[in-house]
Amino acid sequence: MGSLLFLRQGISESPYGFLLHSVHWAEICDVFTRDACALLGLSVDSPLTVCINAGCTALPALLNIKQVMMQRQVTGVWSSRDELPIEIDLGRGNRYHSIFACPILRQQSSENNPPMRLSCGHVISRDALNKLANGNKLKCPYCPAEQSPAEARIIHF
Question: What is the predicted pLDDT for the residue at 23?
Fold first, then answer.
């Protein structure tokens, strides 16, 4: 605000002129963007950047898994499934979706209503599982798989 007093003399002659240097504006833009994204609960990085960083973090583990599976001659196990045989930790900075909302009941999960992974791989809440279960049978709402409700496992985010 003090730099406004020197407008008649010119900002370049002001003792506060260095504050208006373009280097500071880039820093201010970064700070403003990070604060705004934090306030809105959004990621500062683009989705493409997040995916590339996650891929670069996971690649060494994936190559190691591939090598082990080839040595044990179980490569068909990996190629015939839609998911990895192990979980790869991407670090605390790449953990997303800590809150699960059931796509069936549209309710947020809780300790009393945790997300449940069906044997086909789809995830629904325990309440939805109980409502969809017909005795010892459960038909997945997303695929034609029939299974027992007892086969469902709790997922911890």
Answer: 77
**pLDDT tens for each residue of 48-62:** 888 898 889 889 988
> Per-residue pLDDT for 97 more than 60?
no
Alpha-carbon distance of 97 to 124, in angstroms, equals 14
What Å distances lie between residue 4 and 12, 29, 35, CA to CA?
A: 12, 21, 26
Write the pLDDT tens digit of every residue in 123-148. Answer: 999 999 999 988 888 888 888 888 89
Q: Where are the alpha helices (DSSP H) in 72-104?
A: 75-79
**Cα–Cα–Cα angle for 46, 51, 53, nearest 5°?**
95
Rounded to whole angstroms, the Cα distance separating 136 from 73 reads: 37
Residue 146 CB partners (closer than 8 Å, separation 6+)? 137, 138, 139, 140
The CA distance from 116 to 113, in Å, is: 9
pTM, to two decimals: 0.41
DSSP state of 151: G
pLDDT exceeds 70 at position 35: yes
Give how far the C-alpha of residue 151 lies from the chain's centroid of Cα atoms, to the nearest Å: 26
